[in-house]
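@channel anyone free to eyeball this complex?
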Amino acid sequence: MKLYNVKLLTITCEILAQKNVIDILKNHDITGYTTYEVEGNGAKGLRGQGFKNEKNVKVEIIMREDKLSDVIEDVSRTLFPDFAIILYVSDVGVVRTEKF
Amino acid sequence: MDIFQLIQSNLLTPIILFFLFGIIAARIKSDLKIPEAISEFLPIYLLAAIGLHGGIEMRKTGFEEMLVPMLVAIGLSLLFTLNHYQILRRLGKFNIFDSYALASTYGAVGAVTFSVGLSFLKNQGVTSEGYLAAILAVLEPVAFILAIFLTNMAVSKQIRTKKQSFSDNEKSDIDIGMKETKTKLSQVLKESITGKAIVILLGSIVIGYIIGKEGFEPISIVFDELFTGAIVIFMIEMGIIAGQRLEDIKKVGIFLTSFAIIMPTFNGIIGVLVSTALGLSLGGAVMFGLLLASASFIAAPAVLRHAIPQANPSLYITSALGITFPYNIIVLLPIMFTVSSLVHGEEAIDLFNYVTRVFI
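replying in thread with the prediction:
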């Protein structure tokens, strides 16, 4: 079966930044994403203990390459200074490219 | 009764002991943890119980009585928030974002602190006015809205002065700043009004008002008799979280540490005196004072992280939860109770009787 190349953007951030991330996606007409709550350690210390507000969340978005750099730029500009956030991009293959 | 004795016997109540136990459990790195679902459920339960109780009481007293205390509480909350800001900014030399975030954290109310206060009064055999639950609901967003409004005004003013050197098109910048402020404020207002804390509180007040005392009878075993026990379980969780943050208190600094103790004391005692002048009962004045003394640590991060993301969250969470909350429930409650007893001309009721009854 033929696989088509698209990009997977993964953003791990504090749970209170999730709404901002999804708003940015919406601004770029991206409606599909997957989130899950995660815990971990990083520059801002051990996160995920205590209140739900202090958990981390992982947002995965599959998208075409043409939108990628705009989305990343928006996230970096608005969220990098104030939030605990990590972002990375990987190449993935999908069967139904028309879904993205 | 001596104030130190009252503090001492307050220390020996199950609520405080379990809180301290939680801190110890966190310090010895135990894996003790209240399951997440329960620690999310308990604040909802506590607010429902507070609301039901308030609604039933309000049915007896009517609405007119609460109007003046509510307006005074809102006024004081705003005034205190401004006062906090001036102190933090001028004396503490905090940046504008941290100052406003901290000012509103301390201007806002803490629902958990309120619950502990209610059961403290219950131990003392003192009742308080039911409409204080409604004031708790109304007061929740007030300080945040003021702080967010002022922060946005200050930021757009800064942008304006910076841009003025480049262009004369001054009006549009103000418009943009004003527009941003408006959207942010309406968002915060909408989010806090539809937020779970206010929804469950107001909903329970309305239901309590409708069902009255007879309607409450069948559910009183859950919402009345279990109340203090539920707080005790929640206190383990609060103790654990506070214990995990104990190291952060060093980072908070001496100024903020003393702020986190002096301001609640000042605000609380003013609250007790003002509400006594307004004619609130002995217990009501303590709860009114506690509303103004308490700092928000569950609602504050959720609101401030969105509205003032530049502020450092570990400052306001650590000081509110690690310093002010324990101080309020252990030391300040007995102090305010004593002050309220003095101004109400009554002898403080012996808390020790309750303790000996429970433990011996």
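from a first look: Chain B touches chain A through 13 residues (CB under 8 Å).
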